[in-house]
Every structure is written in C-alpha cells, then in structure tokens.
C-alpha cells in the first residue's frame, strides 16, 4: 500500500501542473505548466497557429498563444494570459537509469488526470534526433505512449519532472525530452519564436569513397557527403562549393555522414567561418564558408 499511495500522491501533485492542449483535431495532447503563464507540449501535436486552447486543472478552458515550435527537439511553447498556476518541480533526466520506475502524468480526456506507470528502457548521453534537434540526454521509455500522452510530464519516484514525453522522435517507443532541453528550447522560442540552426545551403547524400582516394589522402574513414544540390546564393555556393564535390572534413573533423554535418551546424556556428575539405576531380580541395542561419522552411542543411 505504501508504494500505491506514493504513486497516487505523485500523480496528484504533478497533475496540478498538467493541462490538456487543444491544438489539433480529435484528441487533445497533454502539456505542462513550465513557468508562470507558460505551457510546454510536444510540438508535433500542434497543427494550427490560431485557435489553440488549454484546459486547466480546474476544468476551465482558456485561449493560448503559440510562442513557437521546434520540431527538431519536438518542443512547443504556449503562452497563457492571466492564468496563475504552479509550475512543475523539474529534475535532471541524465540521472535516470534503465530499470528506474517512472510515471507519465497526462490530461488528455474528459476524465481529468491520467497516469501511466512503467520503467525507463534505456538511457544515454546527448542525442541528436532525426529532425536535427539536440537533446541533452537520451531517455527511452519501455514501450510506446498511449494516445494523448505526448506532452505529458514524466516524473521520477520523488515526484520531480524529468521532462516531457513524445512519440515523435523514435518509431514505436516513447522518448523523454529532458527538462534541461525543454528549458533551453523554451528560452529561445519565447525570445524569438524559433530555434536557430546553422545553414550551408547544400543537399547531400552519403557515398563511399574510392579506395584510391582514401589511400592517396590518407583518410581514416571511407565515406563522405556528395553535394547533389546547392541553394542559389546560399553560403556554400558563395564559398565556392560545387555540385559533385564530396565533403570529407569540416574544420579539420571528419564529415563522413549526416550526423557529422548536423553536429557542425549548431546555433553557435552561425556567422562563423567553416573550413571545408572536399574531393573535387579526385583531388583534395578546400573552401571557407560563412555559416548562415537556416531558413525555417527549407529542406537544405
């Protein structure tokens, strides 16, 4: 009974800061009062910019203003006017280990607070998502999320919220967006409505390097990124990169796959000059490119 009562108490306490977010058709998602007047949720559940509403813990439904979405980390931020509710008590998701017990606390239907009890499936260090977002720690839940649980608070057995849940970053499994990631992304979204990422204006494809190239240039890796498109007037085109070049290094570090490229294009890289090593016509070639800020709607990296 002690464990059962403790779980119920955690759900009741955390649930006071969990809301329902009406930002899509049919079932709402969950959201968390992260700061006074600020709700965070899973960005993929917000399908419109206007007409978003939030159902509070006391049953009231109020209008919310979209501050911004970052699909890379799947964090969405909403602002509430004149709503004074207690924010959650956040914890450090990097302290979680496989097998730790956890509670997902949601509010996505007419019955109020819902809870899902399970264990942490696996954990790891900083993780770059398939959408090019950076999570400060990797935390996978043991199984998928029930409908409406994206955006739910993930609490440990002390009742601290380790982050919010999402089903959009890994196929068939729930992932936790760590509290420190939520905090960092929320700061940027509240300040300017989007998260800045570096931009070269290239379309790429991973390719295997010819053995002759690897030996000739004494490369410790055997793949690179073929430049198959260039954004007109983009940083790479201005820096002298050509379609057909094969990118092999960025600032002296290997660039053998998309993860290497993404890692070099964080927000701190914007405005900085990036030294790019290429293979052109079977010879090593170098370009200096000033990294731009990635347009919000552009498929090039």
Automatic annotation (TrEMBL):
<dbReference type="InterPro" id="IPR001478">
    <property type="entry name" value="PDZ"/>
</dbReference>
<dbReference type="InterPro" id="IPR009003">
    <property type="entry name" value="Peptidase_S1_PA"/>
</dbReference>
<protein>
    <submittedName>
        <fullName>Serine protease</fullName>
    </submittedName>
</protein>
<feature type="domain" description="PDZ">
    <location>
        <begin position="206"/>
        <end position="282"/>
    </location>
</feature>
<dbReference type="GO" id="GO:0006515">
    <property type="term" value="P:protein quality control for misfolded or incompletely synthesized proteins"/>
</dbReference>
<dbReference type="GO" id="GO:0004252">
    <property type="term" value="F:serine-type endopeptidase activity"/>
</dbReference>
<keyword id="KW-0645">Protease</keyword>
<dbReference type="Pfam" id="PF13180">
    <property type="entry name" value="PDZ_2"/>
</dbReference>
<keyword id="KW-0720">Serine protease</keyword>
<comment type="similarity">
    <text>Belongs to the peptidase S1C family.</text>
</comment>
<keyword id="KW-0378">Hydrolase</keyword>
<dbReference type="Pfam" id="PF13365">
    <property type="entry name" value="Trypsin_2"/>
</dbReference>
<dbReference type="GO" id="GO:0042597">
    <property type="term" value="C:periplasmic space"/>
</dbReference>
<dbReference type="InterPro" id="IPR001940">
    <property type="entry name" value="Peptidase_S1C"/>
</dbReference>
<dbReference type="InterPro" id="IPR036034">
    <property type="entry name" value="PDZ_sf"/>
</dbReference>
């Amino acid at each position: 009974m002690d464990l059962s009562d403790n779980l119920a108490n955690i759900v009741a306490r955390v649930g006071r800061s969990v809301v329902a977010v009406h930002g899509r058709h049919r079932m709402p998602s969950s959201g968390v009062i992260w700061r006074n007047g600020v709700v965070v949720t899973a960005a993929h559940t917000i399908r419109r910019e206007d007409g978003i509403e939030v159902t509070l813990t006391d049953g009231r439904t109020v209008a919310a203003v979209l501050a911004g979405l970052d699909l890379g980390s799947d964090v969405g931020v909403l602002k509430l006017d004149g709503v004074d509710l207690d924010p959650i008590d956040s914890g450090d998701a990097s302290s979680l280990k496989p097998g730790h017990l956890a509670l997902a606390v949601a509010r996505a239907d007419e019955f109020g607070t819902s809870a899902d009890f399970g264990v942490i499936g696996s954990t790891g260090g900083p993780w770059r998502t398939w959408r090019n977002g950076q999570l400060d720690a990797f935390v996978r839940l043991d199984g998928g999320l029930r409908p409406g649980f994206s955006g739910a608070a993930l609490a440990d057995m002390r009742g601290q919220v380790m982050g919010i849940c999402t089903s959009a970053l890994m196929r068939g499994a729930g992932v936790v967006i760590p509290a420190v990631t939520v905090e960092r992304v929320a700061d940027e979204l509240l300040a300017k409505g989007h998260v800045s990422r570096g931009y070269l204006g290239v379309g790429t494809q991973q390719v295997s390097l010819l053995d002759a190239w690897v030996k000739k240039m004494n490369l410790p890796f055997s793949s690179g990124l073929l430049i198959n498109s260039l954004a007109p007037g983009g940083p790479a085109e201005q820096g002298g990169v050509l379609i057909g070049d094969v990118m092999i290094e960025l600032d002296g570090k290997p660039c053998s796959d998309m993860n290497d490229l993404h890692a070099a294009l964080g927000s701190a890289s914007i405005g900085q000059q990036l030294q790019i090593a290429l293979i052109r016509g079977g010879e090593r070639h170098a370009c200096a490119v000033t990294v731009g800020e990635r347009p919000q709607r552009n498929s090039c990296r």
